[in-house]
Amino acid sequence: MAPLTAQPMLQISNVSVRFGEAVAVNDVSLTVAAGEFVSLLGPSGCGKTTLLRSIAGYVFPEPGKVVVNGRDITDLPPQARRIGMVFQNYALFPHLSVGENIGFGMAMQRRSASEIAARVREMLEVVRLPGFEKRRPGQLSGGQQQRVALARALAFEPQLLLLDEPLGALDLQLRESMQLEIKRIQRATGVTTIFVTHDQGEALAMSDRVAVLNAGRIEQVDEPRRLYADPATAFVADFVGRSNVMAAELVANGNEGAEVRLANVDRAVPARCSTIGPGQRGWLSVRPEHVHLGAEGAFFEAAVEGALFLGTHSLVTLRHGSGLRLNAHSTRSWRLGETVGVRWSAENAKFLDS
Amino acid sequence: MKRRSSSFDLVIFAIVATTLVFLLAPLVVVVMNSIGRAGIASFPPRELTFESYYAIPSRWLTALVDSVWLGIAAAGLAAALATSAALALSRTRLRHGGIALVLLRTPLQAPSLVVGIAFLQLYVWLSASSGVPLRGSFVGLLLAHTVVSIPSVLAVVLARLNAMDSQYEEAAYGLGAGPVRTFFRVTLPLIGPAVLSGVYFAFLLSLDNVPLSLFLASSSFPLLPIELFTSASFDLTRTLYAVATIVCVLTTVLTTVAFRRLTATLVTAAQV
Q1: What is the pLDDT of residues A249-293, one digit of tens each?
Q2: Which of A245, A270, B69, B109 could form a disulfide with A346 if both were Cys (CB 3.0 to 4.6 A apart)?
Q3: What is the pTM of this model?
Q4: Cβ of B177 and A56 within 8 Å?
């Protein structure tokens, strides 16, 4: 990653996008360094595609500012932005050959035919489809169309590469190999990339940083590992990886650590918490792999409600007398209805106030 | 694949056969009459001859050429206008797009005779008030035929545009093409077959439009359907049937060729 002192490649400041009464993107700010791969992750309808389209110039923020490479492009139409985009359904021009599709951006820049042909050949090498110039998009498989769309978006040397759920239309196996391909091509070209996805696995695997969006707002921007280990909000804890997110109230927060009370559970349980005063209501997030089962040092007891054997471990669903449900990973087998003690260590239980 | 014919197949066959008989019977009458012995037309003809074809007056051939030119010009102009309107209606957020669409379709909804009289009144008023001589002129006919051609082109082009993903155009913009280059390099090639089929129907509508041309044509710019209509009102000569047969053959050939090509391109376009 580029040092933070360098000029950011993309700077989005307080961008909001409205469609009539509906607010699709709500006061979002994001800075992306040159060469960085940043994912916009969120459920459908969270505003991630709209945010991407406002960078590309297909929708205009009101208010907000989009700066690319030091230049304010907020009011520029898409054709003046020089930003490459790969659409969800690729949008390859069906009446043009693969070569003409890839060369389209350069033809618009009025480059010479020989220069375009050379660049098209080079791009087809990069996406590993050499000799495909004369084919029609309709003759290609989904994965091949994906590569051509990528080559087209990169051929005219864009300042930014935008990818709108590009793997959504591919089957599972192809998705995984294309994840690696996109990463390889992105590293080879060094292009700053914004990747929109609703698949948290995809975002974690591919990105330098991930921005999690919910209801038009950014909940957290962080490196994948930190996002997973240290979610900033209950939404991120639940959306990125799986987590037990339980309603909780902070009862103590001192040097010896924090304690929270879960609804209808008799004793307070240890947690990790940043500087928030007692009495605060919020959520406690504990990942299933951090929930330990056994009588020793248990915080409370719960009944085994179900168990799914997943190979390396079982996913055990537990139910406390209060109605509280939580999931745990376990390597031993459990009988249904069996009562078991539950505990976790404080550093793996994060209290979140939002 | 072979399967047993059912009573349902028989019903379908009967419907298709009846339809074909009613579609083709008048044509058969026209063709048979054109090759009958000279004199007053009657059916069936007693003796076969092609002499009525030699008797076609040259005025009618001029009228046919004029009608074809008018049809091509009107359909072409209507295509340009209707395609622009369709683009505006489907690709921009017009404030009163719905009203505009209804207005553009009115020429199809009003009876042609009424539209013809309306144009006549407009032209008479124009020439009286400002001396613009549109009545009986090529331009006057062209304007009227264009107006009534617009709805048929608009319908097919708008349907195609609405069915087509605007991501193609967005992709072109993103790659640096402005609105003009996006239209000519991406939009037009993709909607081309629809525009052509609209143009084709507009041309056919113009070619045999009697009610509209009746009030606007003149001896300085004779049109075939009007010449035939006038002639038929006085006497039914075999020459009339001869010209009608020529027009039928021409349009049938044109239709067959056009449909072959259009279905081929439309099928390719539908796969997009």
Answers
A1: 887 777 777 888 887 777 788 888 876 777 778 888 888 888 888
A2: A270
A3: 0.77
A4: no
